[in-house]
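One record is given unchanged without comment:
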Amino acid sequence: MNSLKRVILFGATSAIAEQTARQLVAQGASLYCVGRNNDKLMALIDDLKVRASDQQQIDGCAADLTDSDQHARLIDAGERVLGGIDGVLIAHGTLPDQQACQSDADLTRQEIETNALSVINLLTLLANQLEQQQHGVIAVISSVAGDRGRQSNYVYGAAKGMVTLFLQGLRNRLAKSNVDVVTIKPGFVDTPMTAELDKGGPLWAKPEQIAKGIIKAMQKGKGEVYLPWFWWGIMLIIRHIPEAIFKRMSL
């Protein structure tokens, strides 16, 4: 069972990460939060400090995580403030406009940078550090969209698929160093990022539900987790639809 007493959150102001932060603080964790929007980040940190005890450290800083030159500094700052690193959650990302990306190669590259390459850069640095200390857990929010390319969101899916594959290899590499690597694959989640989508039906989950599952997966060091759990079965079916049929489906 992994201890989550000192955790760095990248993309801390996303709806899922905010809920994860609150639940971690309620369990006694100290947090270092990194987010792009300074006002939202400071509001979150102030909220967490109210919830925390005097023994818990709550701090953070604003940063654009697409600027990979900042990553090493951010990790060092988090380790210094917390006095070590037990866990890391990488939760930043965007939901691209697929139609806009199809007509703009620069936008497509930008979305891949945000959702995949910036994550992989962070992972490379974190993996080396946690490998050296011989303990810890790294969790990343990927997506069920990365399990199979779909015409409605293949730019986003390609980025998440890249992250998922990278995590698979990293998990195998770090297993002998007592470092767990957890891939979180949420399905449909009711967040500001999905505000433009129709949210009717039983497949949608709240950020609080996903946050609870993330913490449990990090504590247990699970390799790959679908949240909510039933998305495992849904994606199993989708992955096995023959290509001749799948390409005619408006998914």
Observations:
- DSSP finds nine helices and nine strands in the chain.
- The mean pLDDT is 93.
- The chain has one domain: 6-246.
